Amino acid sequence: MADLAARIEAGYGYLSPQEQRAADFLREHIADLAVYNSTEVARLSGVSKATVSRLYRRLGFENAEALREHVRGLRASGTPLASDATTSHSEHLDRELANLRSALAGLDLAPAASLIAGARRVLVVGFRNSYPMALHLRQQLAQAREGVQLAPLPGQSIGEELAALGADDVVVLVGFRRRPRGFARVLALVESSEARSVLLTDAPRLGADVVIECPVDSVTAFDSYAAAASVISLLAAAVLAADLAAGRSRIAAIGDAYRELDELE
Fold it and tell me: Which band of pLDDT confidence, cut at 50, 70 and 90, is reported for residue 228?
């Protein structure tokens, strides 16, 4: 079903001038509609409550609560919703701290770290907005052990990376909203293989051998990955600690290569 903005766009030409006035307000304040009732929308847009109620029905919503639920669903799916309201730094900090507390409360990284440290090959998978997090995780894990790969590479498909998974491989999937439509199929293919799986996500309903949940909620229009980045740091450290002697040897070898290539300041 089309989202609110698409519905307004599709039916705008059929609305009365007063309904268009209210529709303009809805379109410009979508993020705020999660809390506004029809009386507030009528007052703020300068039309009657009857006009707002009629507009809601024209847009396919039974009442104001149905529209509010629709907008909440958009936000939960990761759709950016801009608001005219100014977000304070303290509100942002409170939300970030709440996400961190939620992600770290009762967090047990030992099962995931054990799988990753003991694997022959580790394949880190991420799409869309999850790709930067997957890239960061791959970079951190590559400091701790050999054989860590990233998929899909820019411009490449992923099928060839999943075709030869074995029992001694581990696939780490990073899947935050908004996941591409094919993400569930990728996850199912990994689950049907002999490889073990670790899933870093905001959606615990998705299945894997080990699921690590990280909230990405934000008071701004865009999701926040601060908690995810923190968990990635902890996970990489746990993998390093799982075989500390080998990890230290690899870190030293990487340092030697940096100096030989004069790569870093």
Answer: very high
Which domain, by its residues, includes 251?
97-261
pTM for this predicted structure: 0.70
The total of other beta-carbon atoms located within 10 Å of residue 170's CB is 25
Contact, 172 vs 122, CB < 8 A?
yes
Contact 246, 206 (CB under 8 A): no
CA dist., res. 171 & res. 193, Å (int): 10
The pLDDT, as a whole number, for residue 157 is 86
Residue keyed to tokens 């740091």: 233
- The span from the CA of 10 to the CA of 14, in Å, is 9
- The alpha carbon of residue 20 and the mean position of all alpha carbons in its chain are separated, in whole angstroms, by 35
Total structural domains in the chain?
2
Last residue of a domain, one of 42, 76, 110: 76
Q: Give the pLDDT of residue 119.
A: 94
Those residues whose C-beta lies under 8 Å from the C-beta of residue 54, and which sit 6 or more positions away, are 19
pLDDT greater at residue 86 or residue 112: 112
- State the average pLDDT over residues 34-55: 87
| CATH code (residue 183) | 3.40.50.10490
Rounded CA separation 178/77 (Å): 6
Same domain, 69 and 102: no
How far apart are alpha carbons 215 and 100 in whole angstroms? 8
